[in-house]
Write the structure tokens for this entry.
Amino acid sequence: MATFLKRPIQIVENFLRLDPHEITNIILSDKGFQQFILDLVRINQLYEKGEDGLGRKLRSEFAIGGKVYATFTEIQKQFFRSPRQPIDRVTLKDSGAFYESFRLELSSTFFTIDANTLKESGDLKETWGENILTLNDENFQKVIDKLRHEISKMVKRLILAA
């Protein structure tokens, strides 16, 4: 084989060995990427907007099942501004334990977001709905865009590997 063909042949062989599921799983397993996804729900949706994954405002008078936002939390937020919480929306961040419990669960073809939603006052999912743990369309698109970018970088690196 001619020496000048070795590199192009190596690149083609590297390309043929690529496994898209493995590449995607490697990226989704990255703790930084997982943090990015979880923060889209915790920070962007719940804390900054006070919305669930369907874009519905989390307002105490609209709580599912007739339950309302904890009175103690509302009083803290309105009168004591503790712990420096916004007072114009429900954030579901009182002690921070709910936000800290968020985790990404991976399967071979999808991921789900899970968290400990059980509190003294009941289950947050029963009160606010299942969509407190889902990405809204805008944030889901951000995940797709970032995943596409990371896949491109990894594919290029793997194809050009010696």
Summary: The CA atoms of residues 14 and 138 lie 35 Å apart. The chain has a mean pLDDT of 85. The radius of gyration is 22 Å. The chain is about 50% helix and 5% strand.
